[in-house]
Structure to design on (226 residues):
């Protein structure tokens, strides 16, 4: 089983603050790293998929980086808004698709 | 248009019953999946089908049997339901991938909330 870990488990920030969280994964047998955004009572929604060491992806105020040699990815949110409140999941694919347990973000107005 | 749909959305049933959850995708994807969200909110893959063929079968009880009548459908049948089967079940699909294990982005359905009494 691939051990994908995310930290912190939960996070509360004030509206307007920037924040980031981490996804760590075994660097051996790595193929791709996915980030998903999961709002309560909805289904996970894809944000990014990254495959190459040093990859950086951006979507509006959200961006992500990937380090496959050391086995981690960061997700950044600039100027957090209340609508950013959700659980952010990462998934690493080696031989199979493994999800982390997510970081629950709450943005306080 | 709903890309990945699941029915029913909610399912409440008695222990020992047999039930099915249906999943359909209209994205033209080749690969479909079933996940179980456990009590700790963790998504665990159960099955993966590629072009109607089973490619991933994690350690799940034999009471769970996926059926794929065509590329657009992957149904989950559960026999002799137990209390521990209560969970949210998510279906997902992804476009074709050149790799043996599909690395493409997955598109999720809305989930089916199963409660076994």
């Amino acid at each position: 089983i691939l051990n994908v870990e995310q930290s912190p488990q939960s996070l509360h920030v004030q509206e307007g603050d920037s924040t980031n969280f981490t996804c760590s994964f075994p660097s051996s047998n790595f193929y791709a790293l996915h980030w998903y955004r999961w709002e309560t009572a909805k289904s996970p929604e894809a944000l990014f998929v990254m495959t190459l060491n040093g990859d950086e992806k951006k979507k509006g105020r959200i961006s992500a980086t990937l380090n496959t040699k050391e086995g981690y990815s960061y997700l950044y949110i600039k100027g957090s808004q209340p609508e950013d409140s959700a659980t952010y999941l990462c998934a690493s694919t080696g031989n199979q698709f493994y999800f982390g347990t997510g970081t629950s973000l709450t943005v306080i107005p | 248009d709903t890309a990945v749909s699941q029915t029913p959305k909610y399912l409440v049933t008695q222990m020992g019953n047999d039930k099915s959850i249906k999943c359909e995708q209209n994205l033209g994807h080749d690969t479909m999946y079933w996940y179980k969200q456990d009590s700790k909110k963790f998504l665990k893959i159960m099955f993966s089908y590629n072009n109607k063929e089973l490619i991933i079968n994690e350690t799940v009880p034999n009471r769970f049997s996926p059926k794929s009548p065509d590329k657009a459908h992957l149904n989950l049948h559960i026999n002799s339901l137990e209390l521990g089967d209560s969970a949210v079940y998510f279906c997902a699909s992804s476009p074709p991938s050149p790799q043996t294990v599909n690395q493409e982005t997955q598109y999720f359905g809305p989930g089916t909330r199963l409660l076994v009494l």
